[in-house]
Amino acid sequence: MNIRARAKINLTLDVLGVRPDGYHEILTVMHPLELHDRIKVELLSTGALEVSCSHPDVPSGPGNLVYRAAELLRSQCGCSMGASILIKKNIPVAAGLAGGSADAAAAMSALNELWGLDLEEGQLLELGEKIGSDVPFCLAGRTALAGGKGEILTPAPSFPGLGVVLVKPPFGVSTARVYGLYDSSPAGPRPNTQAMINALEKRDFEAVAALLGNALERVTAALHPEIYEIKKALRDAGAAGAVMSGSGPTVFGLCRSPGEGLSVAARLDLPGCRVTVNETV
Prior knowledge:
The protein is an alpha+beta fold. The protein contains ten helices and eleven strands.
């Protein structure tokens, strides 16, 4: 069985405060991309669980989020069946694009079918939350307003076919460190989440591009000023708007079409950065 694991971008990301459990309460509009990893899942009659990945920086075996997700499914459902899971990475690693969460979600969906577990979407979402905050969104696979830690999903209007120029700098960031520094940083600008939802409903491209916002951006940019340099480069190259995705470090520029995105990418001069052109779905 082969399944796609789609990346996401955050059109807005707001941090509302710290929860009693120590996690941060967020409000974010997330949109899936065509960019995806490929997950190949095969049944193993031996009952063994094998997870391997094509990317050298992503662990195989028990250290992989996919392995944890599969083990959780087995333990919660009393399942003794096994599987071989191969992850072919296309989504940049540690990039703020939910690559690991997407892989875990895709594996859970595939194993639910392969093992005949018959879990409904709500049950899968509840289990996915135990693996990671972005996993429920990746399981749902559609544009959403996400609250709580990111697991409380409300369907939001999608805007497919927009060009997305992804720029991944040659470094990663620690999500935990970014959130920790956010708490001790002075207050900064926050995105207008409801206005973004309204703009998506109207398919108002100019408004969507203008409303891109991420409350974590200034924190990650304090550690890596290159974030702001990439944003400026994208806008100077013709992107209608640009913002960091998630806790970073990937910055994306929004364009009317993938073709326009290719033109923007061709004008960029960002040595060391991985530049790819994709689209919303």
